[in-house]
């Protein structure tokens, strides 16, 4: 195996290891986001798009070269077999065909897994952000609920105070106190209505975030299934190579 195809094979094995590491269930997306926020990754993020496109171009060139080699030796293989030449020449052509097919698999899987790896990292980052937003919205909803309960308790207390006003107090003083209490009750009702509206809005936002998080989770599960299928295909290819 030449140096370039050895490098492609090592790159493929590295991609498989990275994807399997990203698919580990006990490492949560928020933890991956913290890892991605390390200063080293921040410095590399400036060159990430250029590096991604450069690797894509190199893998495409190698893939097309492997396709050309497969077509070349496939036609030669058929011609030599039809001509009934000596066994050594036929075996040499068959070996060349096998190597070109191996290179085709290496470059093709490397190109595909490179795209899958980028998509996996993007989905993990988005899922971590949605989970953080969901937690913040749940905190806001809990605070709004507590405030609503507090206002309702104060409203009940004021109503009880109004009902317990004795008839021995002066009419004017009782009317002024009653008017003041009514104004406080109206103010509390307005605040309660505002809090209820905010609570319903936050509840709708939480439902939308949960729905989006479920969609991201489904995409993440689909990527895991594709990775498992790719691993099985690679194992079959290695078994064929050993034979």
Could you name the key traits of this structure?
single chain; 243 residues; mainly alpha
Overall helicity: over 70%
Percent of sequence in beta strands: under 5%
Q: Biggest β-sheet, characterized?
A: none
- How far is the first residue's CA from the last residue's CA? 17 Å
Mean pLDDT: 77
CATH second-level architecture? Up-down Bundle
CATH class: Mainly Alpha
SS-based class:
mainly alpha
Tell me the domain tally: 1
Question: How would you concisely characterize the structure shown here?
Answer:
With 243 residues, the protein is mostly helical. It is 91% helix and 0% strand.
Explain what you see.
The structure is a single chain. 91% of the residues lie in helices and 0% in strands. The protein has 243 residues and is mostly helical.
List the helices and strands and how they pair.
Blueprint: H1 3-22, H2 29-36, H3 39-83, H4 87-163, H5 171-242
Helix pairs in contact: 1-4, 2-4, 3-4, 4-5
